Amino acid sequence: MSVERPKTIFEKIWDKHVVKRSEGYPDAVFIDRHFIHEVTSPQAFDGLRKRGIGVFNVNRTSATADHNVPTKDQHLPIKEALSRHQVETLRKNCAEFGVELYDLGHPFQGIVHIIGPELGLTLPGMTIVCGDSHTSTHGAFGNIAFGIGTSEVEQVLATQCILQYKPKTMRIEVNGTLGKGVVSKDIILYIISKISASGATGYFVEYAGDAITRLSMEARMTICNMSIEMGARGGLIAPDETTFNYIKGRKFAPQGRAFDSAVEEWKKLKTDDDAVYDVVLKFDAADIGPMITYGTNPGMGMKVTDRIPTVEELKEINEQVSFKKSLDYMGLEPGSAILGKPVDYVFIGSCTNARIEDLRTVASMVKGKKKAAGVEVWVVPGSKQVQEQAKKEGLDKIFEEAGFELREPGCSACLGMNEDKIPAGKYCISTSNRNFEGRQGPKSRTFLASPLSAAAAAITGKVTDVRDLSY
To answer: Is residue 19 located within the same domain as residue 157?
Structure first.
């Protein structure tokens, strides 16, 4: 009798969901949960319409409006013509094909990667896809979650399956104790700065180590969210008691005995002893400081107290041209410090950092303080539930007294697809996940940082080491 070899959590979930496997071809993988939004679904629905077929399983498909929505006056018609058309098209398609939509005004509306976990739609052991690269967020619950293209959105709508080659596996361990002012966003920015924006290309990453397992679920989501920013296909963290406690009692999660039975199955997902990964990387939590990016990809990051590298310090010769171009765009000099650099805008939001825990963190920093003159601060909750919870806890009053603007849910200034754009040439400290050229608006300049660092910059008006402030 043959003994099955030890498997990683990724291999266990993947192999269980393979419907058909043929040598030399991608696997046909069953998808448990398909999230859709207004940007990548219209062409997919058109494809179904042209073929005269429906959605294979509407009960496994969930829709929300997030990318194109305004974050002010959501009860009014959307002003921007393209955004209005995108959202109206989503409404039409969901109505026609029988897909439940969490539209503007719905109590469950919000950023797609925030509403899934908070509603209990995201569960351990699942396969989850969405036409959005940051679908990797859901992997924090111990599942295989990844972004797909529009043609693949159509594929899943039509068949509830997707054709995919099995990625390689990478384990990233972070062990030790985090220092003061260091949070999960700093952990992932640190990792990306060490391995580069392409360092995990072709891999699915499992995050492990005691510094990871001590994190809350919301902090874990931030880590997994930015897996794609180092080129990974996705990222996941093995489920544990923290996971189970978060899920319990959520609207669409299993209830009662069904939940207890599910937990027993979820416990079996963890990676087997002696399972083999293609690559294993280890980092010391004590070496991580408050982080900030200085360039135009998330890999161009450093500790806030460090200096931008010089051309001579770059490891790869082929990086030099893009490095110079990036610094020219950002208006920064090689070898210079960012600490103390004045900022014009602070954006606290996005699928990376717009959960209630993030807003609480910001509120704890700014309570009793005022924003710096000349700095515009937007706090955009990730969902209606986060918005309502913030108000229930009085966070809205703290933000108001500090001069921060608490808006309505949406992707907002994470990307220039709606009204919330950073003006050309202006500097923004952002809790989002990407700092590409023009990402927050044409010719805008973005520093990625944690909610703590963003709050500190809002109070001081400049790039600040959070460890220098009391909170």
So the answer is: yes
